Amino acid sequence: MVGCSQTISLDYEANDDYYTERYRPQYHFSTLAGNLADPNGLIYFKGEYHLFHQKNGHWAHAISKDLLHWEHQPIALEHDELGQALSGSAVVDWNDSTGFFDGKDGLVAIYTSTVGGEAQSIAYSKDRGRTWERYEGNPVIKNPGIKDFRDPKVFWHDETEKWVMVVSTDKSVTFFGSDNLINWHYLSRFGDGQGSHVAVWECPDLFRLAVDGDEGNEKWVLHVSIGDNNKTNGSTAQYFVGEFDGEQFINDHSPETVLITDYGQDFYAAQSFSDIPKKDGRRIWLAWMANWRYPYQSPTDPWMGAMSIPRELSLKTMEDGSVRLFQEPIKEIKKLRANEYSIKELEIEGDYRITDFSGTTFEFEGIIQWEDVEEIGIRVRQSDEEETVVGLNTITETAFVDRTNSGLDRIIDRNGEFFQFGSRYEANYPAFKKQLKLRGFIDESSIEIFVNDGELVFTNLIYTNSTNSGIELYTKGGKAKVVSLNFFHLHSTWRNPPKEDEITQIVVNEDRIHIKVEEETTLKGQVKPDWLHGNGAQLLWFVEDPEIIELANDGSSAIIKGKKVGTTQVVVTDINQTVEKKVSVRVTSK
After folding, report:
1. Family per UniProt (predicted)?
2. 41: CB partners within 8 A, 6+ apart
3. How far is CA 81 from CA 78, 110, 123, 473, 549, in A?
4. 181 and 265 both lie in a single domain
5. Assigned domain for 440 exists
6. CATH code, domain with 562
7. Please, which residues have CB within 8 angstroms of residue 255's CB and are 6 or more apart in sequence?
8. What pLDDT was estimated at residue 534?
9. 268 and 138, same structural domain?
């Protein structure tokens, strides 16, 4: 049964072409057009979540009631006489410590300005974040004579009753304190000889979490992203668990310990939301779903970049007594579920194709057990030619996400060189547990995998054909038991849900075709939404100029053959001709 519990009315209907471009995320945040980078100023205030983000040195802005459906706002912070507005944070000045708000509360943004060297500046809003005014005394912390001095994260420290700022300073972070967000003084520095130093530290965050849900036992988490470098083949991120007394951070682990935040390639500049109400009690963050090796080189248009799904954070004690950060999707995401398909107690050996469920935007969760097997996994976004693989190798004891055959193999990186985009990403996983719990989120151009309730997380971009929707379970070298496995198609967060059995869109594996005379190629088509795939929906195929190409089709696919030099279009429509898709075809000489 198809349904949707969302109550938010959107501006666009299910069959509108809004946010339907090739690779466009359907339930991840992406900007309408242009570049998207670091999340900035994440904050909750008076019933609204604010998501600011980098857009060519500006703060772009969006607002949400539920962290899922976002309404774009005008640019919040543009360039001014102090240059760009680089990454930073926002707080609610509840007691008007700044004096900006006439004794009331208001929002203060803390960001990095650039003229005269990176420095920290502030702006404020008296109208719930709709408009912003720069503080006339900017910058509030001048550049101390170093190159990297940016990305301030500010929060109120209850015990010492002051504002604390943590700011990136090359391969370390520096803490400052203030009573009013304007006058700041140096507190301490952390990072020398601690963790990974393979590249500059950026976008710090500092917050406390209960350990194992015990509010009487809290630890502080210091998170930093690590810039582009050869050792990690791009950018990455790390975190530290320890104590913070309002002055300095003390790492609980040995200095050489490196705790990786996300084992995929595309999770950077994570920031948590400020001022989420205590009755909610969650610490929620999201990150820029990209990598500094190829920040604006993806094959997408007219937008570039997206955010991860929001995640709830917790600290849990491991079997060896160490404390680790866990990440799980926010509970609100279940509101996007359109239907459910379940498998129970299935034994698999070799390949097992899922025939009753397919899709390109869906969620799955499952538990797999085994006694003697070399490898187990699930293949998603599958076709005869491509697939993305999630699994566990018990011989090497690694969980992995493999995009080597996902579609896009190489990409031109920001240095103009070829980068091996199609790669495999791994994390250590002890095979003696003989059980694997997976939860996955697949979108038009991404995959996010949560292992064992978020103990390990993989975030990866994938650029695969729009019609790659197959799903397959598999084992190698033995049998495995599927204890439970549930699939859920997910509604778009940008358009209203479709009516029952309504075809909203047709997608084709290629948008443009270039063939030679006498050369053949195959086009594949599918209807949207995903849950209509299994209804046997037939497609009609037409050629605008049959003198240039000839076409033969069997409903879901068509073979075209070049006849003479020229250009034309193939038109694909549903049986009732309610929606259509056009594919440009260019034929050249042999």
Report:
1. Belongs to the glycosyl hydrolase 32 family.
2. 50, 52, 59, 76, 88, 89, 90, 109, 111
3. 10, 16, 14, 57, 58
4. yes
5. yes
6. 2.60.40.1080
7. 193, 194, 195
8. 61
9. yes
The pLDDT value given to residue 1: 32
Instruction: Based on the fold, state whether residues 137 and 69 are members of the same structural domain.
Output: yes
Domain span including residue 164: 36-293+304-308
| DSSP label at residue 293 | T
Q: List the structure tokens of 362.
A: 């869906």
- For 322, other C-beta atoms within 10 Å of its C-beta total 13
- pLDDT tens, residue by residue, 485-537: 999 999 999 999 999 989 999 999 999 999 999 999 999 999 999 999 765 56
Q: What's the confidence (pLDDT) of residue 3? A: 41
Q: Which amino acid is at 4?
A: C
Q: What is the reported pLDDT for 473?
A: 98
Please give the Cα distance from 12 to 526 (Å, whole number): 22
Give the CATH number of the domain where residue 371 resides.
Answer: 2.60.120.560
CA angle 246, 252, 257 (to 5 degrees): 125
Please write the tens of the pLDDT for every residue from 370-411: 999 999 999 999 999 999 999 999 999 999 999 999 999 999
At 553 the pLDDT is 83
Annotated active-site residue in 11, 16, 38, 252 = 38
E-strand ranges in 39-81 read 39-45, 48-55, 58-64, 70-77
Backbone angles phi, psi at 156, to 5 degrees: -90, 125
Distance CA 474, CA 94 (A): 55
Asked whether residue 23 is domain-assigned, the answer is: no
Is the CB of residue 367 less than 8 Å from the CB of residue 373? no
For residue 47, give both structure tokens: 């019933």
Give the residue from 331, 305, 274, 239 showing the smallest Cα distance to 51.
274
Asked if residue 1 belongs to a domain, the reply is: no
- Report the distance separating Cα 70 and Cα 74, nearest Å: 13
**End residue of a domain, out of 465, 490, 515:** 490
Domain assignment present for 83: yes
Q: Are residues 477 and 517 located together in one domain of the fold?
A: no
Task: Give the count of beta carbons closer than 10 Å to the beta carbon of residue 566.
Answer: 15
Which pLDDT value is given to residue 499?
94
Quick one: pLDDT at residue 524?
94
How many other C-beta atoms lie within 10 A of the C-beta of residue 450? Answer: 23
pLDDT at residue number 536: 55
Q: What is the residue type of 49? A: Y
Q: Residue ranges of the chain with pLDDT lower than 70?
A: 1-8, 534-537
pLDDT of residue 556: 86
Asked whether 521 and 515 are in contact (CB, 8 A), the reply is: yes
Residue 38: active-site member = yes
pLDDT for the residue 535: 57
Are 472 and 353 in contact by the 8 Å Cβ rule? The answer is yes
pTM of the model: 0.96
Predicted local distance difference test score (pLDDT) of residue 7: 55
The CATH number assigned to the domain holding 74 equals: 2.115.10.20
In this structure, the answer to whether residues 128 and 84 fall within a common structural domain is yes
Confidence at residue 466, expressed as pLDDT on a 0 to 100 scale: 95
Residue 172 to residue 179: CA distance in whole angstroms: 24
Counting the structural domains of the chain, the total is 3
Indicate if the alpha-carbon torsion angle 336, 268, 274, 110 is positive or negative. Answer: negative
pLDDT attached to residue 256: 97
Question: Residue 90, Cβ neighbours under 10 Å: how many?
Answer: 31
256 and 342 assigned to the same domain? no
Quick one: 192 and 217 in the same domain? yes
> What does the alpha-carbon distance between residue 150 and residue 485 come to, in Å, rounded to a whole number?
45
